[in-house]
Write the structure tokens for this entry.
Amino acid sequence: MYEIKKMLNLAVSAAKEAGRFSAGNINAVKEIICKGGPNNLVTDVDKKCEKMILDKIIGTFPTHSILAEETGEHNAADGGKVKWVVDPLDGTTNFAHGFPIFCTSIGILIDGESRIGVVYDGTRDELFTAVKGEGAFLNGKKITVSSTAILQNALVATGFSYDIEGKVANVDHFKTALSRVQAIRRAGSAAIDLCYVACGRLDAFWEFDLAPWDTAAASLLVSEAGGMVTVCDQGPFNIFKKEIVATNGKVHREMLDLLNENRD
């Protein structure tokens, strides 16, 4: 019924085109705009990348719906049975400063379920792909999560909300984690952090106040690589929930316990 392989191939092609374009413009002069606050940026490259991706999707699958970071909802003609969730440039603040950690992320939901995930890091030419039930891959080679068994030996990552005055004080979780893990990283791209959990470079990742396009592709990569993805109360994750806890599975309980110490 659904052309999974065709959709995967198109997502790969679109992500690579946009990812290579953004990577090629990292040192170019950029038009930078603040959206919804001084810490939330968008550049002309974000917008150009999104147009590239949407043109490809609409040109091949004109009835599919799309949720894109910069331009919102498009074409709900099929009732949302197939929804492409697009982040043309995850890590815009990094990109705006010439800090080379950013990516293009494309997730595809079918009947509300994450079925395809593609993340492309153009600066390192790393393509992460997953189809539900078929495993996760980096540049065509199967990947699995790490084998780290206890949190004290774990390398973990997190991110911070653009809403620095918001209700979720992640700095408290960060401070607690400092003495309970081996080290913490804050790279600035949720999609890349999740991909790094999937391929074993990180053992765990958590963040609050995320949007669907931040997690649509890479959360599937973690689960297909053998990891675990939930929210903080261990309830099931979906991309429309704002919080995520993703681990190799072995340190998941400890990670949840740590995060729940500072919950209201």
